[in-house]
């Protein structure tokens, strides 16, 4: 691309619509060309933005991909009325989303990139920390219902759930039967240890 | 390298020492040149083996790296006399090994490679499945001691431990305080759910 195809922002003020335009362009590009065709250059061209503008708001391609990924993730924390079913529903929804849409490949690629690129690593850490806070909501709802032990830290509990999901994603093990999933979730709820008599 | 620097194996019989020689060469190369300098070509040259021989026994660079990684991992399943301390000791040993030796970077790189390379993915799946069987030993010992609930599947329990470790490795979060680790392990042992009165 050449410089004159870019629309220069007038002055230093950030155009509030620009970030949305960039995310729209990124989302469309990803849908059309896939991960291999996803470049900041092409996002910039489509959004009529300068690359420096994009890099001012997103530190790396991985950071931009994470925002697109999160934008497309429309997974609610279903309220089934009890903690066990809430967790099963959440894990089921994420594994299906990863398995049946390009989201799984996108997230895997970001995790991979984060292992050798420091900026991608920072973006992933920030992102996963935000997700832990979000997933904590499941635990907080269980606390409100009186289902959860005193002294449990919601974010620590959420980390077990995220870890479980990442391991399945990264080993390509997303066809989880409901029976196996319930067995795994019951370990998290009841623990490994035998109750003392 | 040129073909004539390779020592050709005589006939189709596999030289039993060759696999060891290749692993030795791979280990030395990794120590000397790091991940960036680690190539099958150079391993072949140093081991005086043909590349086809290496690829006959290891499907990919990732598979060879995993064998080298595992060979250097001298982590025993310490018998502390109880399950909680056994698990804490195991997680502590692995996180320190990953943090303080090149092993962490090697394993991260293999997981990353496995996200876009199918052969690396297969090697990682086989490897992690073997590790789950190995880590199950901790759970089996707890079962023998009568510490664990009936109906717990050792490999499923081990998967929670591996998942926890991978998540910490991949988010660069290996400085785990003993206090936080004990809190996390107690969730796995006691579960999230409040005991019914």
Supply database-style keywords.
homodimer, 197 residues, mainly alpha, 9 helices, 67% helix, disordered N terminus
Query: Which residues of chain A sit in consecutive blocks of at least 5 with pLDDT less than 50?
Result: 1-13
The outline of chain A comes out as: elongated
Tell me the fraction of residues in β-strands of chain A, as a range. Answer: under 5%
Query: Total strand count of chain A, please?
Result: 0
How many helix segments of chain A? 9
Largest interface, with Cβ-Cβ < 8 Å?
A-B, 47 and 47 residues
The protein's oligomeric status is homodimer
Rounded to the nearest angstrom, the distance between the terminal CA atoms of chain A is 73 Å
Task: Outline the biggest β-sheet of chain A.
Answer: none
Q: Mean of the pLDDT scores of chain A?
A: 91
- Order of SSEs of chain A, N→C? HHHHHHHHH
Radius of gyration of chain A: 20 Å
Helix content of chain A: 55-70%
Structural class of chain A, by secondary structure, is mainly alpha
